[in-house]
Amino acid sequence: MRNQNKKSIWVSPWGFAESSLIVTALMVSGFLIDLFSKNRSEIEFPYPINIIILTILFVFITAIFLTFKKSYFVKWLQSAQLAIVTISWMLLLVLLMGIFKQENSSEISIINRLYLSNILSSSAFLLLQLILLINLSFALLNRFNKLNFRNISFILNHLGILIIVIGLGFGSGDISKYTLKISKNDITWKTKRGDTEIELPFAFKLIAFRLENFPAKIGIVDNQTDEIIKGNDKIILTGQDSIIYFNGKTIRLKKYLQNSILFGKGFHLVNEIGSCSAAFVEIEDVNNKKQTAWISRGSHLYPSVLFPIDSSYTLAMLEPEAKSYKSDISVYFKSGDIQQYTIEVNKPVHINGWDIYQTDYNKELGEWSDYSVIEMVRDPWLNVIYFGVFLMMAGVVLLIFTGRINNNELV
């Protein structure tokens, strides 16, 4: 009896099985298009082309809905099953972004040819966006056809998602992103994208660069491989008075200087260009015989100083890790105004619609870097996406409110 009632695949109305097969086939087709396309450029539509395409698309979708709204195919295109399958595949691709490094690479590899290194620009992801856009549009047109108070939360939720999809898909062509190097000696007001020189909306000049490092770690290096020895619980010295044990020897960090130079037989604390981290260490063997020495990472002006433990291993100071770095900059506007800002890693400043990020510096000079690398990003569709999120939240609140009303009516 159960087998007789079981619906065969591809028999209307279509459900999860048909939706899964069709969406998966389209996604795989997108990956194959990227795999076998040679020199495919990124699919981006800048203003006003994106607005024109979007308008034509919505006119076409509306015409199809009004003409064939009673057909099983149009009903399937607005179904929840199609939406769930499409969103599930999109979420999976987003998760893959955490596995594969996202970057624009010219290296020829299967990862890059499948656009797994740039998933948001892949044909597979763009096809999924198109399916979801059609699905949401049909679902909204159907609800607008039956407009009442209880449908408003549905409309707000789906309209919010639709606006977010539009902002992400059609707004990418309007995103401007520039990387430039600014210094204390010059005012920078131009940058390059490939061979094209681009004039910036304002100019920059570096006032001061500030870097704070973590205390440099001290490790044991294998003389044969030049690799740091690992395997013990505490193989690296990380702070003053810390101790590690290695090959029957006790190694103690007695003194650490953040900025110093070698003068005479030891390092002395100074704060000038080229000064480097240094540490005074003590090695004690099983016979309680002690040796002491200074070691240093060195800098662009001074060589590193090592301490041989024995013929096989050497004690060395590792490259200090940056704790934070920031730049004080002057920004020159075309109006003649000059304003000062401080930009820091993960703490961008917002200037006339642009987000300015601190990204890099002259690592050879370290805290005395003579330049700072910043990135300018402008996304005019960001407010559109925020508006979509606002509509979604409003729909959720209204859904809770209408749910309470329905519960009271039942009581």
Topology:
Layout: H1 2-5, H2 16-36, H3 49-68, H4 72-77, H5 80-96, H6 110-113, H7 123-144, H8 149-170, E1 176-183, E2 188-193, E3 196-213, E4 218-222, E5 243-246, E6 249-263, E7 266-269, E8 276-284, E9 290-296, E10 307-308, E11 313-317, E12 322-333, E13 338-344, E14 349-351, E15 354-361, E16 371-378, H9 382-410
Antiparallel strand pairs: 1-16, 2-3, 3-12, 4-11, 5-6, 6-7, 6-8, 8-9, 10-11, 12-13, 14-15, 15-16
Helix pairs in contact: 2-5, 2-7, 3-7, 5-7, 7-8, 8-9
Distance between the termini: 39 Å
Q: Helical percent range?
A: 25-40%
Fraction of residues in β-strands: 25-35%
Structural class: alpha+beta
Rg over alpha carbons: 31 Å
Mean of residue pLDDT values:
89
Q: Which residues sit in consecutive blocks of at least 5 with pLDDT less than 50?
A: 231-235, 407-411
Largest sheet: 5 strands, antiparallel
Question: Can you describe this structure?
Answer:
The structure is a single chain. The protein has 411 residues and is α+β, with helices and mostly antiparallel strands. It is 35% helix and 29% strand. It has 9 helices and 16 strands. The protein has helices spanning 2-5, 16-36, 49-68, 72-77, 80-96, 110-113, 123-144, 149-170, 382-410; strands at residues 176-183, 188-193, 196-213, 218-222, 243-246, 249-263, 266-269, 276-284, 290-296, 307-308, 313-317, 322-333, 338-344, 349-351, 354-361, 371-378. The strands form 4 sheets. Strands 5, 6, 7, 8 and 9 form a 5-stranded antiparallel sheet that branches. Residues 231-235 and 407-411 have low confidence and may be disordered.
